[in-house]
C-alpha cells in the first residue's frame, strides 16, 4: 500500500478544498424534522450541482467515476472544511449503503432508475432490516412476502427504522420461503416504496427529544418484482454486502470529525480548569493521558481506514474486517464524548451552539454501539469471520 498521493490526487484535493471553502453551509443544522430534511436536501443538491455527489460512483449514474482514494480525499477535505456530518444526514442510508448495494448487486434498470435520484437529493432512503423479534439475530426475521403475479405481497412489521417518516425508498428484507431449511435461506432483499398503500409509519420518540426512528407496519403491500435486488431467496448474501458498506468505509467522514473533536478537546483542556479547580485541566495527569490516548487512537483508526480503502479498491464490496473499524469507531466515539463530559462538566449544557453540539453528540454517541449491529455482535463477527474462531451457535 502506497501512502503518498499522486500529483493527480493532490490536484483533486486542491480542487475539493477550494469548492468546499466557497460552498459549505454556515450557521448550523437543525437536528430533526422538516428543517433538517430541507437543510440536508439543499446541501445534497448543492454538492450534486458542483459535481461532488458520488465521487466514486459510476459516471453513467451521475457520479464522477473516481477512485476510492479520491473518495477518501474528498471526505478528508469535507471534514476539514467542517461540512455537515454525512452520518447524521437524511441521505446517509442512500449514499452509504443502499446506493453501494444497488451498484454492486442491482440490475441495470435498478441502477439507472434509483441511483441518479439519490445523488440529486430527490430521494431519501431508510433501512427495513430489524424487527421486534429480530435485531442482533437478523436472520430470524419474519416479515413475510409471497409472489403474486409480478409482485411481492408483504405483511409484517419492521422496527427502529431510522427516518422512515421522511423516506421514499427502503432497503427491505423479507422472508419469501419459510421452508427453505436454514434461517439464512429464503430471505429476499427488495426495494420498498414507502408511499405504497398498506404501509403505516409510526414515529418513536428518542432520549434526545427527536423521533429519529419509527415502527413500520405492512398490510398486503404490493412491491413490483423488478424491485428485488439479487435473486429471490438470496437476500442474506445481498444484506451482508449492505452491512459491509454500513459497518465499514461508510464511517470515514465521522472518523475525521472525531479527530477534529479530539483536537478541540485538547485546546479546551488548556483553558478549562482541571479537577483541582486551580490549574488548567491539561496539567492533570489523568486527563492529559486520556487526551493523548485518544489522539493516538484517532491516528490508528485513520491507518486502519486507509488499509481498508486500499483493499476495497481491489474488491468493491468490503470484507468482514470492515467490522473491526465499525466496532472501534463507535466505541471510540463514546470515549471521546465521555471525555468531553468529564472535561466540561455541566458547562457542556451552556456551551451548546450551532457550531458545537456537545449534548446532542454525546447522546448520539450512545446509540452507535447498537445501530448497525451491537458491539457484541460485531465482536462475534470479528471472532468468527476474521479470526476464524468457532461459531457461537
Ligand atoms: C439509533 C438506532 C438506529 C437504528 N436504525 C435502524 C434502521 O434504520 N434500520 C434497522 O433495520 N434497524 C435499525 N436499528 C436497529 C439495530 O440494528 C438493532 O437495535 C440492533 O441490531 C440490536 O438489535 P435489538 O435492538 O433487537 O437488540 P437484541 O438483539 O435484542 O440485543 C440485546 C442485547 O443482547 C446482546 N446479544 C444479542 N445476541 C447476542 C449474541 N449472539 N452474542 C452476544 N450478545 C448478544 C446484544 O449485543 C444486546 O446487548 C437502529 C438502532 C438504533 C439504536
Can you give a write-up of this model?
The chain folds into three domains: 7-89, Butyryl-Coa Dehydrogenase, subunit A, domain 1; 126-233, Butyryl-CoA Dehydrogenase, subunit A, domain 2 (Beta Barrel), CATH 2.40.110; 248-386, Butyryl-CoA Dehydrogenase, subunit A, domain 3 (Up-down Bundle). Helices cover 47% and strands 14% of the residues. It has helices at residues 7-23, 33-50, 68-80, 92-105, 108-119, 235-247, 252-269, 285-312, 322-344, 347-351, 358-367, 375-386; strands spanning 125-128, 144-148, 151-162, 169-175, 187-193, 199-204, 213-224, 228-229. The strands form two sheets. It has a four-stranded mixed sheet with strand order 1-4-5-8. The chain has a four-stranded antiparallel sheet with strand order 2-3-7-6, with no helix packed on it. Strand 2 (144-148) and strand 3 form a beta hairpin. The radius of gyration is 21 Å and the shape is globular. The two termini are 37 Å apart. The structure holds flavin-adenine dinucleotide. Flavin-adenine dinucleotide is lined by residues 126-130, 135-136, 160-162, 212-213, 367, 370-374, 376-377, 380, 392.
Amino acid at each position: 500500500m502506497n501512502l503518498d498521493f499522486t500529483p493527480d490526487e493532490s490536484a483533486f484535493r486542491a480542487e475539493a478544498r477550494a469548492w468546499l471553502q466557497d460552498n459549505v453551509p454556515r450557521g448550523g443544522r437543525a437536528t430533526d424534522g422538516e428543517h433538517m430534511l430541507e437543510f440536508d436536501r439543499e446541501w445534497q443538491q448543492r454538492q450534486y450541482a458542483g459535481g461532488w455527489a458520488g465521487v466514486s460512483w459510476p459516471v453513467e449514474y451521475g457520479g464522477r467515476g473516481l477512485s476510492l482514494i479520491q473518495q477518501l480525499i474528498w471526505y478528508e477535505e469535507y471534514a476539514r472544511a467542517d461540512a455537515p456530518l454525512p452520518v447524521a444526514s437524511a441521505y446517509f442510508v442512500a449514499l452509504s449503503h443502499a446506493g453501494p448495494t444497488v451498484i454492486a448487486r442491482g440490475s441495470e434498470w435498478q441502477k439507472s432508475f434509483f441511483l441518479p435520484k439519490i445523488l440529486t437529493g430527490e430521494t431519501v432512503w431508510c433501512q427495513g432490516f430489524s424487527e421486534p423479534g429480530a435485531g442482533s439475530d437478523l436472520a430470524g426475521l419474519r416479515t413475510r412476502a409471497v409472489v403474486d403475479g409480478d409482485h411481492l405481497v408483504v405483511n409484517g412489521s419492521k422496527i427502529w427504522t431510522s427516518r422512515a417518516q421522511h423516506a421514499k425508498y427502503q432497503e427491505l428484507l423479507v422472508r419469501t420461503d419459510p421452508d427453505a431449511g436454514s434461517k439464512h435461506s429464503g430471505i429476499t432483499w427488495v426495494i420498498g416504496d414507502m408511499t405504497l398503500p398498506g404501509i403505516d409509519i409510526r414515529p418513536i420518540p428518542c432520549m434526545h427529544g427527536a423521533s429519529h426512528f419509527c415502527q413500520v407496519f405492512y398490510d398486503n403491500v404490493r412491491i413490483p418484482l423488478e424491485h428485488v435486488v439479487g435473486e429471490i431467496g438470496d437476500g442474506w448474501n445481498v444484506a451482508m454486502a449492505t452491512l459491509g458498506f454500513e459497518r465499514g468505509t461508510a464511517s470515514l467522514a465521522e472518523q475525521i470529525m472525531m479527530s477534529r473533536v479530539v483536537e478541540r478537546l485538547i485546546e479546551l483542556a488548556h483553558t478549562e480548569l482541571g479537577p483541582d479547580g486551580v490549574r488548567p485541566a491539561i496539567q492533570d495527569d489523568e486527563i492529559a493521558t486520556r487526551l493523548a490516548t485518544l489522539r493516538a487512537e484517532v491516528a490508528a483508526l485513520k491507518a486502519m481506514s486507509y488499509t481498508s480503502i486500499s483493499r476495497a479498491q481491489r474488491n468493491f464490496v468490503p470484507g468482514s474486517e470492515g467490522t473491526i473499524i465499525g466496532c472501534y469507531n463507535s466505541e471510540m466515539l463514546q470515549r471521546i464524548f465521555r471525555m468531553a463530559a468529564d472535561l466540561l462538566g455541566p458547562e457542556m449544557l451552556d456551551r451548546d451552539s450551532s457550531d458545537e453540539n456537545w449534548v446532542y453528540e454525546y447522546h448520539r454517541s450512545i446509540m452507535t454501539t447498537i445501530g448497525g449491529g451491537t458491539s457484541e455482535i460485531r465482536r462475534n463477527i470479528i471472532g468468527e469471520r476474521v479470526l476464524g474462531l468457532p461459531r457461537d451457535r
